[in-house]
Amino acid sequence: MKRRKFLGAAGSSVAVACYSQWLHAQTNGVLIVDVLPFSGPLAGIGRLSDMGAKIALSERQQRAGSLQVERMVLDSEGNPARAVRKVIEAMEQRKAVLFTGEVISAAALSISKEVAKVGGVYITAVGADEVTGADCSTSTFRYSVPTFGAIEQTVRPLAKAMPQAKRWYTITPQVVFGEGMLANAKRVFQELGIEHVGNTYHSLQDREFSGFLTNASAARPDVLLLLNYAGQLQACIRQAANFGLKGRVTLLAAWTTGLYEYHALGADLMEGVYTGAQYWHTLDTPGNRNFVKQSAVMFKETPDHSMALAYSCTRLLLDGIERAKGADPAAIIRSLEGYKYEGVTGEEEVRAFDHQVMKAYYLLKGKSKSQMKDKDDFVDVVSGGKSFVDEKSSLCKRQ
Amino acid sequence: MTVYLFQALNGVGLGMIYFLIAAGLSIVFGLLHFVNFAHGAFYMLGAYFCLQALRMGLDFWTALWLVPLVVGGLALLLERVLVRRTYRMAHMYQILITLGLGLVIQEICIIVWGTEALNVSPPESLSSVVFFGDFGYPSYRLFVISLATMLTFVLWLALEKTRLGALLRAGSQSVEMVALLGVNVSVLFAFAFAFSAGLAAVGGVLAAPLRGAEPFMAQEALSIAFVAVVIGGMGRYSGALVASILIGLTQSLMSSLWPMGANLMIFAAAAAILVFRPNGLMGRV
Amino acid sequence: MNHILNGPVTRVALCSGLALVLLPLVTGSASMSIEIVVFATAVLGANLLLGFTGLMSFAQGAFFGVGAYVAGLLRVEVDAGMLAVIVASGLAGAVASAVVGWISIRRQGIYFVMLTLAFAQLFYFLAYAFPGITGGENGLQGVSRPSLALGPFEIAPVTSNTGYYIFAASLFLILSMAVARVIHSPFGQVLLAIRENERRASATGYDVRVFKIIAFAIAGALAGIAGALQAMFVGLASISNVEILMSQEILMMSIIGGANSLAGALVGSGFVVAVSSVLSTWWPRWLLLLGLILMVVVLYFPGGLVGAARSLVARLKSGRPAPSSKGGLR
Predict the structure, then answer these.
(1) Which residues face A224 on adjacent strands?
(2) Which residue range is the domain that position A322 belongs to?
């Protein structure tokens, strides 16, 4: 009996699986598709991004101008090939042409190409430079600041604030992104006359950084520049603190993923640590004040980095649809090129030649626990600004 | 020079934690001939339960003995309900079942604690840094090394000098003999399984302040543990110890010389040993 | 001629052919069907190794990845034609697999499995170590589909999803028939003998090692071709192809479908892909259910879904409890 039941369940689940696809046949108004990781190691970011996108929709009552908007969500499962397959499927099943999302650069780059093939629109906030660099395309827009800006807006201001700190050591993940960060860092070091006393590469699998940190410590740097991110960055900071490096060396983490990292590490660990960030919830701009309020109302949460990025991407797409008065991708692209608006970081503009959104990147400094006004008040925003590769030096050669 | 000394110290510390995980795996494979691909999950549960205990107001020292007991109890339950059905199965199927089990436990941890890595602070008394000249070494890590060493010694004593230990060792040679001696083999198996889980959990509790608790730490721990057991020799606890320390040392020292190479070397070494010395460096199976 | 028409190869051809025609209709999606067929090709190899030769290899994912990278490189650098790409990825997969097999089979049981695991990890690190070739964490981007043409005549418009599905499905059909031919040959008989009792097979005078290595090579070729198909489908040779997770997924599909049956490849792949696709829209924690399903299948349905279906059919036919679904040729 057990076997038959199981077989029946197996068979019917497959059938249901497929028929439920057919149920989605209707399109209400304009369809936008959001690709996010809801399972797998990046699920946390997926959940937060989803919340940000929902805020963008709800503040306009699910409309772009007079048009009703339907948002479909695809689980990329943290697997680029699967994400692309689902995107292809959405294009085939629902004739989708408007896409946002993704967290993994490999997936975003591929989705960018697929969307370009159908002449659609894709707005993303992933980290790879290639999105608006060597692999830029007419269909793709990028909201996040690339490595150039991340380094410019962290290393320069910190170097200026600490003119006596002449010895810098870098820890770099040995991946394409890490190399990009390092190349930019070296360039700025040279311009500012900073002595680059050493660099350590590590792989993406490393969890134990004590060896690398001991190495770094041996070179007696003034500043330890961490070019890694996510779980590895957290391990680095935690272990740097454990090994007593925090008091003797200034830590700068150039690429962080925001509030939830601070919660994971805690105020004690982050005190005195400088970080670079795409966003912080205390930014005093009309766009951000509104966003924070919406977040409190809808989710009772302080918005973090992933929420803000997803919110901005979705908002940009909705603005595009509204301005183009329709879902025609070519019209949306035209309407977005050169578009200036009030975003969460203040005035933001979509640059026409590479579709990069010009927004600020910030340098943050961790506060001590006693200075925190509330449970999320981890940092002082030291500085912020916009730095982007100019058209001449850009690797983006479109049109 | 001090740098290398420190790297070596780190390596030993790391190795000791790996050993706690590998020891359990070694016992289970040696005695039960059971391949447990969910062993890393006990390590992970150790870390998560430690986090939870601290959140519930208990202190680290209580967690250090309470959590392994809880995890051991859980393992006992699992053994009764699921694992004992698989003893007679081919290793392949044991691997597949425990693979599924590992997935289930991982997802349950995500449901309860979320996907992000969570921080666990070391106890106040061990939050200081001991300075040797210019280099600081966390007192917590020194504690980990000492405790793990002590545990290893206690384990060795238990295995060599107690009747239970003798039974475990005899059992990994021949279960039939042990049964003929009048020992209730199924109770022995259950105990061994629970004990190995408890050991891994101790590793998890100790590792939590070092790495935090995150749902994918099980996979990472499992790979290293298997490599340690393979290099050291299945069923050979001293071999697992030597191998774990070697792995820890390799990881630490290579990070100065060739960071990318560390993991590569470890797996290549494991492959080489599997091929040329299948009984491991010190195994005799 | 008669023998061929009535033989098991024809049976496989007809059953698979029917399933492949129905698949896109049942799933309603050409792209999902393509993914199912792609994985089924890799699982075919896993079944050959696991179900028929008794070897559980954790390295199938690595060869899948190798095939994807080879296909990607050939397309991006040399704009190679479809035939060249498929043949090259198959060859690459076969060679890599043969090497891994040659070393791994020196040990048995759990040690053998560990060796394949170690090699899978090695491939993963190698992929990261040569970003110039593999694209590192970004993967190999921009893999386009070559047209399937003989001179000026286009055989199938593979740029459309339906066209690509027809191509992939036909390729899978041909490969299934080839594997069926291999299974139902003296070579296949030896593989089964090895699975049942290796020492006896060896005592009968067969060089067991050679047979195992050939089985590895065939499985590797299948995985490599599957990887190439995927790379050309999504336009990307992703580094996650060489992760252990990929090998685990292939093994899961193999077991759930039924490792000792060729039909199990399509069934297992179809089941896992379809169900995970749907589950992921309802509950982000669908991996938990997949883990449970795996455990249930191993405990109660050692022959997988196909095995269970067969015993059900047998029981219904004879009204008596069905014979064991393990063993024997399928």
Answers:
(1) A169, A251
(2) 27-145+285-358
Mean pLDDT lowest for which of A302-306, B15-19, C145-149, C310-314? C145-149
Query: Position of tokens 């590769």?
Result: A389
- Residue B263 has its nearest CB partner, among A205, A218, A234, at A205
Whats the size of chain A, residue-wise? 399
- Give dist(CA A306, CA A313) in Å, integer: 11
**3-state secondary structure at position A95:** coil
Q: Tell me: the pLDDT tens digits for C87-101?
A: 999 999 999 999 999
Q: What is the pLDDT of residues B4-54, one digit of tens each?
A: 777 788 788 888 888 888 888 888 887 777 778 889 999 999 999 999 999
A121 within some domain: yes
Q: Which of B86, B108, B267 sits opposite C121 (nearest CB)?
A: B267
Domain that holds residue B169: 2-216
User: Does any domain span residue B244?
Assistant: no
What residues does each domain of chain C span? 2-318
- Interchain pair A18, C301: CB under 8 A: no
Report the domain count for chain B.
Answer: 1
Among the partner residues C28, C125, C238, nearest to A106 by beta-carbon distance: C238
Q: Which two tokens stand for residue C269?
A: 């792949």
Q: How many angstroms away from the CA of A202 is the closest CA of chain C?
A: 11
**3-state helix vs strand vs coil in chain C, percent to 5:** 75, 5, 20
Residue B259: what pLDDT? 67
Using a CB–CB cut-off of 8 Å, the residues of B that contact C are: 29, 35, 82, 85-86, 91-93, 95-97, 99-104, 106-108, 110-111, 219, 223, 226-227, 230, 234, 260, 263-264, 267-268, 270-271, 274-275, 278
- The per-residue b/e assignment along A377-395, b for 16 or more CB within 10 angstroms, e otherwise, is ebbeeebbebbbbeeeebe
Do A111 and A194 have their domain in common?
no
Residue B120 within any structural domain of the chain: yes
Chain A nearest C-alpha distance from B136 (Å): 5
pLDDT digits (tens, 9 = 90+) for C125-153: 888 888 888 888 888 888 888 877 655 55
Domain contains A391: no
Tell me, what's the pLDDT at B285?
Answer: 45
Q: Domain with A250 in it: what CATH number?
A: 3.40.50.2300
CA A77 to CA A74: how far, in whole Å?
9
Q: What is the mean pLDDT of chain A?
A: 89
Amino acid at A135: D
Query: What is the average per-residue pLDDT within A205-224?
Result: 85
How many structural domains is chain A composed of? 2
Q: Choosing among C49, C50, C114, which should be mutated to test the B contact, i.e. which has the most B CBs within 10 A?
A: C114
One domain, residues A140 and A208: no
**Residue B271 belongs to a domain:** no
Q: Is the interface score ipTM higher than 0.90?
A: no
Do residue A110 and residue C235 have CB atoms under 8 angstroms apart?
A: yes
**Chain C residues inside the 8 Å CB shell of A109:** 138-139, 141, 236
How far does the CA of residue C291 sit from the closest CA of chain B (Å)?
A: 4
Rg (CA), chain A: 22
The answer to whether the Cβ–Cβ distance between C141 and A135 falls below 8 Å is: yes
The verdict on A70 and A36 lying in the same domain is: yes
Whether A177 and A273 share a structural domain: yes
Find the helix or strand (DSSP H, E) in which A94 lies: helix A80-94
Domain for residue A399, yes or no? no
Q: Indicate the pTM of the whole model.
A: 0.87
The beta-carbon neighbor of A203 closest among B2, B134, B260 is B260
Nearest CA in chain A to B1: A218
Q: What is the pLDDT of residue B66?
A: 94
Do A278 and A144 contact (CB within 8 A), yes or no?
yes
- Whether residue A145 contacts residue A359, with contact meaning beta carbons closer than 8 Å, is answered with yes
Regarding whether A183 and A140 lie in a shared domain, the answer is no
**CA C90-C92-C94 angle, 5° bins:** 65
Q: CB contact, 8 Å: C111 with chain A?
A: no
Shortest Cα distance, chain A CAs vs residue B248, angstroms:
10
Q: Determine the pLDDT at residue C326.
A: 47
The answer to whether residue B263 sits within a structural domain is: no
Between A41, A47, A210, which is nearest B216 by CB? A41
